[in-house]
Amino acid sequence: MASTAASGMASRSGSSDPALDTSWIPETYVVPAGAKALAAGGTALARFKAAFARHAAEEQRVWIVKPTCLNRGNGIEVFNSLEQIMEHLKGRPADSSLILQKYIERPMLLGGRKFDIRAYVLVGPDGSVWFHKEAYVRTSSTLYDSSDLSNRSSHLTNDAVQKHLDTYHTFEDHCKLSLEELGSALRRAAATTTATPATPATSATSAGSATPATADTSTATGTSLALSSLDTRPGCDAGLWGAMRRCVAALFSAAGPLLNPRRLGHCFELLGLDFMLDAEGALYLIEVQLAQ
Q1: φ, ψ at 23 (rounded to 5°)
Q2: Model confidence pLDDT, tens digit, residues 177-234
Q3: CA torsion 287→215→255→265, rounded to 10°?
């Protein structure tokens, strides 16, 4: 079982602190819900409303709304109007909160369908962070349709959503791919579109099942990855895996101390991290899950 880890993980993209680059996290707010909280307003709600207006001015109106303590896609909604979001907040139980996150409206697609990447991190009692080399890809079995926000199977890749569809095995077995299979599929798509042969990168880390997610100050945290040369081999620091590792290192350099505040000697946390790529190849961390 997993639940969304919101505390300490949600962040506004484009922080005013120049030392904290959060451009790889979609703009995200944790807002108190319920009629009373909505009537009271508050700083978090005011900041979200300002963000909604700012993005709407650029014709970017879609936000994804998530409960803070549910999993498997339960309770997730996608809206494109402030009125809809306010009504949804109002209808939630008192003393609850919701995560409001800017939706990636132009995601990278696989055969016209959405996908995301689930990676795993182990945090040790001493604060060490180990990023597993094997991740997997979750795909949608429904074509992406930005005009229909009510079609959950088009927008959510959760297995609990996809497994009920007749198309669950149509494209990929159980709507799953390995990282290497993703790279092959995307390179084929890029070659078909541009008639440019793929040029895989050659740099890879040493063999093993997990690698310390240490910070790499020589490389930017966020990155854009070209489809025609996207290297998705597990452990390849020059490719997608390395970009995810650098995001993990930056995340836990800020949030790591929150995971074991009492410094318990035998406390380990196994976390699932969900990543997405947009149409330009920019990598985003969209969610952190607590594996229980």
Answers
A1: -65, -15
A2: 999 999 888 888 777 765 443 333 333 333 345 565 554 433 334 456 655 457 888 8
A3: 110
